Amino acid sequence: MKIRLARVCEVIKRELGVLITRDFEFGGTLVTINSVDITPDLKQAHVFISALGPPGGQRKALEALAAHRVIFQNELARRIKIKHTPHLHFRLDEAMVRGSRVMNIMSELGLLENPANADADETPDI
């Protein structure tokens, strides 16, 4: 059963990505769908997005996606043949921000190698 849920999540992610890139403009903010998590009964789907751009762009992108949620659900119902079209919940994916913060902390503590030096060490002698 878990394989089916994973496949449904991937199909929803792909179709929403097509709809968003084709039909919506976010005013200079780059919006990408990172992942979709769906409940086992296929009635609720959490769509995790990342939004890169001007200050306030993330909030505006989330508001625009939430405002057009019903349109997305109707389009998904037409494109994907499943028993229930899930209710979409858009969330901001904080993974990139957390990862960047961890990398900065590790760098400050000296736990990270300098990437420029690491590349020079791995270059084979010719």
What are the SSEs and their pairings?
Layout: H1 2-23, E1 30-38, E2 44-52, H2 57-67, H3 69-79, E3 87-92, H4 95-108, H5 115-122
Parallel strand pairs: 2-3
Antiparallel strand pairs: 1-2
Helix pairs in contact: 1-3
Class derived from helix and strand content: alpha+beta
Mean pLDDT: 83
CATH superfamily: K homology (KH) domain
Biggest sheet, spatial arrangement of strands: 1-2-3
The number of domains is: 1
Report the portion of residues in β strands. 15-25%
User: Would you report the number of β strands?
Assistant: 3
**Radius of gyration based on Cα positions:** 19 Å
Number of continuous helical runs? 5
What is the CA–CA distance across the termini? 52 Å
| Name of the CATH class | Alpha Beta
- CATH topology value: GMP Synthetase, Chain A, domain 3
Helical residue percent band: 40-55%
User: Which stretches are poorly predicted, pLDDT < 50 over at least 5 residues?
Assistant: none
The dominant shape is globular
The run of helices and strands is HEEHHEHH
What is the second-level CATH architecture? 2-Layer Sandwich
Biggest sheet architecture: 3 strands, mixed
